[in-house]
Structure prediction request, 151 residues.
Amino acid sequence: MKLRGQAVLLVLLIGYVALGHSSLERQVERQETHKILNKQSPCPRDEYYVEQHCCKLCNEGTYAKADCDVNHGNPECKGCTEGVSYMDKKNGYHECLNCLICDDVLGQNLTEACTVFKNTVCKCKENYFCADTETSPSDGCTKCQECTKWV
Prediction:
């Protein structure tokens, strides 16, 4: 019985180590396949890390269509599509961000159109309000209701 209990414990321990190892491998794999765009990056502030080397950041309004091949090299940067996508900061992303679409059905009005440099700005129509920020009610607006008289 003692030997059987030790065997079960050994199997559990091996499984735990194997799961921990595969989890660690996945974490390392994610770090290698995704660019490190934060403080942990070994690159200067104006560069991003990819595949064991640093690439220069693409400018606002563009994204990295292809990463650089050499350390401290320039990626192939491509422009975002006016009115469709934008990028509001220097970056190493592989695609631009999609523009917000103001929705009349959700009680929104367009305040500022999307450009390749900044997202759309929507605001709530008259007699509507939003729980989100007034400058960009991304979840829609709620129609105001008339107050009922106190009885």
Notes: The beta strands are 47-50, 53-56, 62-66, 76-79, 85-86, 97-98, 108-112, 121-124, 128-129, 142-143.
